[in-house]
Amino acid sequence: MSLVQGAHPQTSQPAEARAALLAWPEFNKPAVWLVAVILLIMPFIANGFFLIEIFATTLILGTVALSLMFLAGYGGMVSLMQLTVAGFAAYMVAVFGMSANTNISLGWPWWLATPMALVLATAFGTLGGALAVRTEGIYTIMITLAIGAAFYYFTNQNWAIFGGHTGINTVATPRFWGIDWRSDIPFYYVTLGVAAFCYFAVQYVSRAPFGLALQGVRDNPRRMAALGYNVNAHRVAAYAFAAFIAALGGVLQVWNYRQISPGSVSVGACIDILIIAVVGGITRPVGPFIGAFIFVILRTFALDLLVKLGLDGNRFRLLIGLGFLAIVFWSSDGMIGLWERWRRGAATIDKRGGGGHGHG
User: InterPro entries in the record, alphabetically (predicted)?
Assistant: First the structure.
């Protein structure tokens, strides 16, 4: 029985169906295991530039975009403040932790500053979500964009807490067990571990009773309310979960660059997260990481190519925009949708070919 049509999924579905729903089908695909092995051995086959500037940055941006994918894909809520939540967490790490701005930073050790930043950023995202769930459609997009724009201008003009337009520099990164966790290889594995944790957390929650109820709210909120579900509570809880994921990405971001400034939370950067999620695919947790990889590759190498051609390097966004329009035009589900269309086409050709041999 469908969640939208019937009672609670724990009582309406057979045990076998629930077990299958909570399984990890991706583990049955050899390509997934191949990608996992490549990611694990990446430090042995890539230099420091590719390891951090390409792959670690992809994992960080993909994690932030994953929070947007969760809200849009499973909750039907497009939020443009996910990078703002990540930036808020990054600022809190810098404010509560140690940095070169001793008149701003409180000097807490990283193991105290980081949990505090995660808690405050999650609360910030939950509060923003509580405001956003009172609207629908384009109004949700506008109110979350307004929150992002307000935070950008606030950080840009506030010198006492956020350091104004110069931001907070030389933020301390974790050191324990005799390891500098910001050095290239340890930091790459930290980002990989956090990204994997967030990916599997989203996979699990999407198949758990809460995730199924959230998808029911997305598809038919009136029916879910009639069944006794608190629609707004589910939506706010989804924002809280997504905020925690975005906050983890923000902590990694400030550790990566060792600084945070208003430019990191600008309106343009907020929209970049939307582009990343849509280009990769908004309906699958792996989509944001695919989109992030494409975005980082274009941002890194298209910028250099344009500069070598004597053009303005900022025009790389034009290339990203054209790619975005092309992908959306050909597929409503980004690169994942294009891949699945290609696979279906290839399977159809194979069947026709096999049928021809059979009749011969």
Answer: ABC_transp_permease, LivM-like
pTM assigned to the model: 0.85
Cα–Cα distance measured from residue 226 to residue 5, given in angstroms and rounded to the nearest whole number: 11
Dihedral angle sign, alpha carbons of residues 10, 13, 16, 19: negative
Q: What angle do CA 317, 321, 324 make, to 5 degrees?
A: 135
202 domain-assigned: yes
pLDDT tens readout for residues 1-25: 334 333 344 434 444 434 433 444 4
Place of tokens 């990611």: 39
- Burial state string for 173-194 with b = 16 or more CB within 10 A and e = fewer than 16: bbeeeeeebbebeebbbbbbeb
Residue 159 lies in a domain: yes
Mean pLDDT score across all residues of the chain:
84
Bridge partner list, 179: 176
Question: Number of helices and strands (H, E) in the chain?
Answer: 18, 2
Q: Which amino acid is at 169?
A: N
The two structure tokens encoding residue 261:
């400034």
